Amino acid sequence: MRSNHLRGIIQYPRESDQGLCMPKYLRFNNMSVVNPAVAPKESSSVSLQIPTLTATNYTTWSIMMEAIMDAQGLWETVETPPGMAVDEKKSKTARAFLFQAIPEDVLLQVAKKKTAKDVWESLKLRYLGADRVQKARLHTLKSEFEALRMKEGESIDEYAGKLSVVK
């Protein structure tokens, strides 16, 4: 008995298909049904899922997007090698990739950018700029925390007063 959860991916031959034993597979690049026993060998296409940018994942998102865009031949529109002209069609495709990977509120802010490079730089400035501010704030808070040590000769009430003002 064949399991029903595979029916959408694998088609099993009917009994009347001249005794073929091999299942037919759906090929994902053009969704045609192919019998692997008869089909010529071709390079298979790979479907890459575009990650969605969030407020906290810019670093990993940018690494994944660079890899995906590079695999699609689009990264050169963001970081153009010296002396090479940017292909306008590739830049538009890369810009569309980026638009698919960002939330609607961010999309509205970068929609006027005409090139993939401009969109990428705008996102980088927005998220890494905020990251630098967060790191500076964290450094300040650490310094303030270290300064809160109870000093010799300081009463518990005085030290507790210092702690109560920390937010």
From TrEMBL:
Pfam families hit by this protein: Retrotran_gag_2
Which PANTHER family does the UniProt record give?
A: OS04G0629600 PROTEIN, RNA-DIRECTED DNA POLYMERASE
Q: What is this protein called?
A: Uncharacterized protein
Q: Give the species.
A: Mikania micrantha (bitter vine)
Lineage here is: Eukaryota, Viridiplantae, Streptophyta, Embryophyta, Tracheophyta
